[in-house]
Amino acid sequence: MREIRDAEQKRSLKQKDKDSVRMTMDQALHENLVKDKKSDSNQALVDRLNHILANEFTLFTKTLNYHWNVTGPRFHSLHEFFEAQYRELLELMDTMAERIRILDESPVSTLREMRSDNTIIETPGKFLSADKMINDLLAGHMEIQRQIQDTLDSGNVDSGTDDFLVATLKAHQKNSWMLKSHLT
Ligand SMILES: [Fe+2]
Fold this sequence. Notes:
By secondary structure, the protein is mainly alpha-helical. It has helices at residues 2-69, 75-102, 111-117, 130-153, 159-181.
């Protein structure tokens, strides 16, 4: 009788071991699935941020170009205005790259990467009139605002990045207003 009871007890312990192994495996599988889902959505967000960064870099280069090459009766004021704008763009790019590092990913960091990720197009060798320069920069700021708004609307943004993107959007809106105010 005692032997039967011992055998039953052993069988029950073995089953408990099996159950606990199965539970651990299920848990690990679940955690991996959650992790995969999380890293996929993180990557999608970082891709979007890198596109914005590449466009900010292109717009920064354009603004620097126009700071150097603007001519005409408004030279002095526009030369200084474009300088203030490219300095602000440099700050915006820096905080964008740091945001991507905070998300544990790598920002586009070379000229080659910047050129393959941008949608704002440069027009080398063309010397535009002052108003065309301003309109061109304005179009760049509007394109970046559209990209930021798309990212915010994607529903795939953590709270910290959401807050950061809203601040960046406001900075581009302010720069757009200033550019518009310089149009004749
Ligand atoms: Fe300068």
